[in-house]
Amino acid sequence: MSKGLFHTVLTVRTILELRSTVAAFRAEGARVALVPTMGALHAGHMALVEAAKRPGTKVVASIFVNPKQFGANEDLGRYPRKDLADTRMLTEAGCDLLWMPPVEVVYPQGFATNVSVAGISEGLDGAARPGHFDGVATVVTKLFNQVTPDIGYFGEKDFQQLAVIRRMVADLDMDLEIAGVPTQRDDDGLALSSRNIYLDDAQRAKAVALPRALGVAAKAIEKGGDPEATLAAARDTLTGAGFDLDYVTLVDAETLAEQPDPARERRLLAAARMGSTRLIDNIAVPAEQG
């Protein structure tokens, strides 16, 4: 065996092992931070782990490819699974515990409960992917109950998901903090995503049009440009680059309501397909001053 194999992150696959280990962390007086993932880890996930590494905090990462958040014609079967590489990355990042349950532990026979967050989950990705956010809310609720963290870390790239989870935590009086971590990007600006590996070289070169178009639009709106005309121009740019658009829209950063008040922080959100690969991105638009 190589030396590194003796020092891999502690990995548990049963509720009993998980709760015993978390209890030991608590007995040491530590806070517990959770970084939920579906694996196929990249620098974006590592940024969440780094954000979670605070003095007196134990970092728990979870890897679970959640079948309930994939639609009938989505990529559950081919979603990348890289357990060994993921374990190595978490080890090198200094993660304290990896929770990697099998499907039958998360959804045992007879499982019949669904968590649904109305309103904020229904447009945008919720409209494009029916049932997706029910699956997200259900599995995140289970992860919170299993790990009992003091704080959960989520990437801002999945901005609607972050908003849904914040709403759920507030509505259900869950006793934990939710922290959003800024989107991590490649050198050319494309948001890091596990699905980027689906892009061939030509598609990858074209995909950079997505963050660039959003950046141009965000600056134009911030300078007082007409939002509708600016969004229309962004849509034309992306269509011309070869994207098939789901949506490009400006929303309130908290409620995700469209036609937001310029006096509040806003978000420019987009989802589009390059070939068979669906990409999402977003960029902040600050509130108007004065």
Keyword list:
single chain; 290 residues; alpha/beta; six-stranded parallel sheet; three-stranded antiparallel sheet; 10 helices; 9 strands; globular; disordered N terminus
What does this structure look like?
This protein has 290 residues and is of the alpha/beta class. 37% of the residues lie in helices and 20% in strands. It has ten helices and nine strands. The chain has helices at residues 15-27, 43-52, 83-93, 103-106, 125-128, 132-147, 159-171, 201-207, 209-222, 227-240, and strands spanning 10-12, 31-37, 57-63, 97-99, 151-155, 177-181, 244-252, 266-274, 277-285. The strands form two sheets. The protein has a six-stranded parallel β-sheet with strand order 1-4-3-2-5-6. Strands 7-8-9 form a three-stranded antiparallel β-sheet, covered by helices on one side. Strand 2 (31-37), helix 2 and strand 3 (57-63) form a beta-alpha-beta unit. Helix 6 (132-147) packs across helix 7 (159-171) and helix 9 packs antiparallel against helix 10. The longest helix is centred in the middle third of the chain and has 16 residues, at 132-147. The chain is globular. The chain starts with 9 loop residues before the first strand and ends in a 5-residue tail after the last strand. Residues 1-6 have low confidence and may be disordered.
